[in-house]
Structure formats: C-alpha cells, structure tokens
C-alpha cells in the first residue's frame, strides 16, 4: 500500500509535528508524576509545565489571566461544562445553524428538559451568519449566544468580532467554539468580546487527543456541575470557587497537556500565518481543480475569503459515503464523509439525502502532490459514478 494521503485534518490533525511525539515521550518518562504544590520537586516541576501551558495558551488567545484557562478532555467536554454551568430554566439562548453537535445537543437537552428556549440563526448561501440576525432574536430573557467560529463542514470564518460587540453592549454572555480555528487563525478574546472560549487540543493546535479547555472571562459565573479532588485545600468539602480549580477535577491529562504545549510551540516557531497561507494555497488548488471536474457540486462561497482549509463537495448522484470508501480503498486517501456532526448545516445545504458531503481538511503537512493525486482520484470517481 502506498503512503496514506491524509486529508481529514478537520477531524483531527495527523501526523503531529515530530516535536509533539518526542516531547510527550520524554515528558512522560521524566515528569509522569501527579502535579502538586506541596509534593516533591518533580511534582512541582510537573505542575510548572501545566502552568506554562496555561500561560502560552492564554497568550495565544489574548487572554489576561492564565488562571482562567482550564483544561478539559476536549471541546465537547468544555462546551458541556460551560453550557450546563450557565443556563437555567427560563433562559433564552441564541446559537447558529453552523454548530457542531457539541453545542446543539447540550442546548437541545436544556430545551427538552429544563425549559430553556433555543433559537438558531441561519447562514447565507456563502456560509456566513449575519450579526443583525442575532439582534432580531434577542429578548429580555436572552442569556447566552453560542457561535461556532469556523464551520467544520464548509470552513467559513464567522464574524465573531461584530457579534461579540453586540452581545457585550446588551450584557449577553458570548461563547465561542474555537475547535476549528484555534491554532489556524487569530482567536482574540478581548477584540471579539468573548466571555467563554472553548478549544480542543487535537485539531489545529496539533496536540494529542484527550485534551482541550475553556477560557472563562472575568465576571463570568459558571456554576459547579461536577466536584472532586483538586490537590488543593483538601479538608474543604465544597469544591473550590477559584480558578482554575473551580472547573478542574481529578488528575489532569498531563501527557496531553505536554503534547499540547509542544504543538503550540511548533505553531509559534513556524508562524501561524505562514501555516495558514500554506494550507490556503493548497485549498485554492483543490477548489480550482474540483471546479473543473464534471458532476461535482461544491458547497458555499467560491473565493474562499474568510475561510480555513476545509472544503465540502459531492459527486452528483452518488452517496458521499461511497466516495469516501473509494477514496480510501482504491486511492489511499483519507477524508471525512457524512454529516460531520453538524446536521443543521446539511439540512440547509440540502445534502442530507446524499448522506452529507465529502470533506477534505488540509493540514500543515499536506503537499501539492497530495492535492494533485486527490483531484485525479475524484475525477475518476466522478467520471465513473457521477451524473
Ligand atoms: C466546530 C466543532 N466543535 C466541536 C467539535 C468537537 O471537538 P472534540 O471532538 O475535540 O470535542 C468539533 C470536532 O469535530 C468541531 O469541529
């Protein structure tokens, strides 16, 4: 079997930078002990690595207080922690049709069981939501707005700065799901008036799976919905009020945090803009090539402005899943097919009946040759099965 061409970086980045693998290995061997303030020197050093990671991520997101960056399992965990700790019966929440199930499902749960009202702002034909559509839905009970910074289906970057400003002016909490954007493009908590930011470590931050987090702005109250050991003030039965312990429970994923630190540092060394430019150059090559193939439908805007390196398409008349199976089995190309956990996007695109879309997610280690090979493969599949 020839080398796999991995074009599923929207799901998780693969491979990781070599430094992520080597640092995780050396960290685990040298510092794989429980972190603690009153422990041995080694456990204090381990704790320092966690604090360094908090600081570097806080700086990346333009936050002000690294104690308010808490580690979670991934962004699904972070979003659940935040949503469940904020909304109450009678609240109104405005979100978008671009959301991942990591947002849609917790909100649906509160709608179904806890008398929380939820509205979804639609996106336009180019794949963008509009700030004024949020305002039209606001009412006195609107407590929270949740927006996916970048669609994981169509790759469009949403105008969070304008939406955040509108929320701040009205005292409405603004939560951003940065699962796709963190590490690829600027995520600026202050500029975008973000009260709660959720991120995951294993996508564009180039860390391993099992690590993610939340940045919680000053004055934002997230109720405790879990409790447990923090290694600090153990005589106290009430879970700690102060950050980061307020939202952290049990022994953290130390190796995950170490890998995330290595990922963030690698991005810093390469330059986030340079990586983004590389990926967008390949994405333009991909889009230009797909447009020239007969029997292909590409979704959303052509120019790929305000975009990351995620593209969805279909071979007309042929199930998305079948395209993925052929790409994998016959051509050694990994992609993602189906609804990509974002069912409302597909409802709007009208792609449910075709089993969703085929999604290519370009990453830092993809090359022009990968794109050329993928285009040749799609052209053959479209010529044989498309109509
Ligand atoms: C926009 C978005 N939000 C949330 C998630 C969930 O991420 P995780 O599986 O790391 O929790 C994803 C992953 O696909 C995503 O793309």
Automatic annotation (TrEMBL):
Give start and end of each Aminotransferase class V domain.
Answer: 5-371
Q: Which SUPFAM superfamilies match?
A: PLP-dependent transferases
Give the signal peptide range.
none
Keyword tags: Pyridoxal phosphate
Gene3D superfamilies linked: Aspartate Aminotransferase, domain 1, Type I PLP-dependent aspartate aminotransferase-like (Major domain)
**A UniProt-annotated Pfam family:** Aminotran_5
Q: What's the domain of life for this entry?
A: Bacteria
Q: What is this protein called?
A: cysteine desulfurase
Q: Which species?
A: Pseudodesulfovibrio piezophilus (strain DSM 21447 / JCM 15486 / C1TLV30) (Desulfovibrio piezophilus)
């Amino acid at each position: 079997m020839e080398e796999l061409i991995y074009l599923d970086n929207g799901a998780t980045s693969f491979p990781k930078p070599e430094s992520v693998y080597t640092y995780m290995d050396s960290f685990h061997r040298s510092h794989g002990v429980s972190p603690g303030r009153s422990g041995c020197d080694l456990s204090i050093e381990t704790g320092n690595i966690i604090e360094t990671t908090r600081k570097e991520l806080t700086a990346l997101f333009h936050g002000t207080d690294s104690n308010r960056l808490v580690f979670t399992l991934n962004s699904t965990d972070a979003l659940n922690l935040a949503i469940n700790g904020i909304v109450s019966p009678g609240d109104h929440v405005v979100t978008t049709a671009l959301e991942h199930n990591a947002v849609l499902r917790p909100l649906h749960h509160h709608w179904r069981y806890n008398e929380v009202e939820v509205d979804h702002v639609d996106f336009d034909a180019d794949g963008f939501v509009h700030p004024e559509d949020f305002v039209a839905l606001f009412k006195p009970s609107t407590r929270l707005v949740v927006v996916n910074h970048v669609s994981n289906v169509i790759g469009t970057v949403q105008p969070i700065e304008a939406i955040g400003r509108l929320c701040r002016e009205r005292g409405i909490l603004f939560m951003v799901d940065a699962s796709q954007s963190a590490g690829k493009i600027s995520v600026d908590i202050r500029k975008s008036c973000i009260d709660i930011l959720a991120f995951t470590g294993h996508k564009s931050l180039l860390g391993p799976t099992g690590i993610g987090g939340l940045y919680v702005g000053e004055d934002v109250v997230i109720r405790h919905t879990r409790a447990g050991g923090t290694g600090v003030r153990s005589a106290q039965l009430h879970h700690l009020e102060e950050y980061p312990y307020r939202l952290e429970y049990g022994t953290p994923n130390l190796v995950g945090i170490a890998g995330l630190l290595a990922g963030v540092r690698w991005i810093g060394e390469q330059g986030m803009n340079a990586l983004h430019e590389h990926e967008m150059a390949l994405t333009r090559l991909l889009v230009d090539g797909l447009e020239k193939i007969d029997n292909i439908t590409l979704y959303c805007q052509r120019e790929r402005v305000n975009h990351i390196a995620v593209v969805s398409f279909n071979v007309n008349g042929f199930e998305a899943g079948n395209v993925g199976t052929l790409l994998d089995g016959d051509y050694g190309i990994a992609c993602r097919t189906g609804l990509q956990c974002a069912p409302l996007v597909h409802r709007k695109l009208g792609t449910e009946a075709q089993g969703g879309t085929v999604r290519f997610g370009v990453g830092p280690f993809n090359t022009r040759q990968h794109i050329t090979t993928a285009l040749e493969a799609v052209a053959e599949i479209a010529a044989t099965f498309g109509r």
